[in-house]
Amino acid sequence: MVAFLEARAQGYLRVVRSLVDEVGLRPGETVLEVGCGSGVILRWLARHTNGANHITGVDINPYLLREAAALAKKEGIEGAIELREGNGEALPFADSHFDVTMACTVMEEGNADRMLDECVRVTKSGGRVAVIVRSLDMSWWVNLPLGTELKKKAEAQRGH
């Protein structure tokens, strides 16, 4: 799972870079990533900002948080990232706590309305909330190198 998340995020980093540029992240601002998983975006952000921002990641999965901590340590940036266990639908932070709150490809995993409400709640007045969601309108099998017969079977199982 960690390898999958790490590889998938590499493709998203260009979009994340644009998102960070769009929110106008300034040195000294606090950042929260909701649903940080293995921490690939957090680690990129820590390197991108050269430690100028306090960066926090929250995830519901303790295993992924342990992996995120190990990967940050391996890269020598563990001091630049704070990791917390928590649910995106009930964030464990006070109101108006962060300057920038981000959620990248996690809102489709739960109640998106509740997660967005929580992102807004923990973001300071005048702060920014930035969200990326992935498309779920395409078959999971669209990019798999399956033979015709196997592809038909796979799609039949999902009702496509």
What does this structure look like?
Helices cover 41% and strands 21% of the residues. The protein has 160 residues and is of the alpha/beta class. A five-stranded parallel beta sheet has the order 3-2-1-4-5. Strand 2 (54-59), helix 3 and strand 3 (81-85) form a beta-alpha-beta unit.
Number of distinct beta strands? 5
Main sheet: strands, sense, barrel: 5 strands, parallel
Q: Strand order across the biggest sheet? A: 3-2-1-4-5
Mean pLDDT equals 85
Count of helix runs: 5
Morphology call: globular
Q: Residue ranges: pLDDT <50 for 5 or more in a row?
A: none
First-to-last CA distance: 26 Å
Task: Summarize the helices and strands and which ones pair or pack.
Layout: H1 2-23, E1 30-34, H2 40-48, E2 54-59, H3 62-74, E3 81-85, E4 98-104, H4 112-122, E5 123-132, H5 148-158
Parallel strand pairs: 1-2, 1-4, 2-3, 4-5
Distinctive features:
160 residues, alpha/beta, 5 helices
